[in-house]
Design brief:
- The protein has 85 residues and is an alpha+beta fold.
- It is 38% helix and 21% strand.
- The protein has a four-stranded mixed sheet with strand order 1-2-4-3, with helices on one face.
- A hairpin with a 7-residue loop joins strand 3 and strand 4.
């Protein structure tokens, strides 16, 4: 199974760029019909993870994917699952 990976460590302090990269990875997954995207906000204080989850919870983004999974073994990792017919 193919998956995309987005590591946000390098842009953690650039809010606008974070949203742009999250949007880009979601659109790329849809265009290539890739069922799994791994996002790595890192462990840190948890603020970046909250930013990612807020982005994914927006109505126009929420309708694009099937579900979000927070990795229970690694606090600094989020998976987005897509379902294609």
């Amino acid at each position: 199974m193919a998956k995309l990976k987005l590591d946000l460590h390098d842009i953690y302090n650039r809010g606008g760029q974070i949203d742009a990269e999250l949007n880009r990875i979601v659109q790329e997954a849809l265009a290539k019909k890739i069922a799994l995207v791994e996002i790595i906000p890192g462990k840190g204080s948890g603020q970046l993870k909250k930013t990612v989850l807020r982005f994914l919870n927006q109505g126009h983004i929420r309708q694009l994917y099937h579900r979000v999974e927070k990795d229970d073994k690694n606090f600094g990792r989020i998976f987005i699952h897509f379902r294609f017919k």
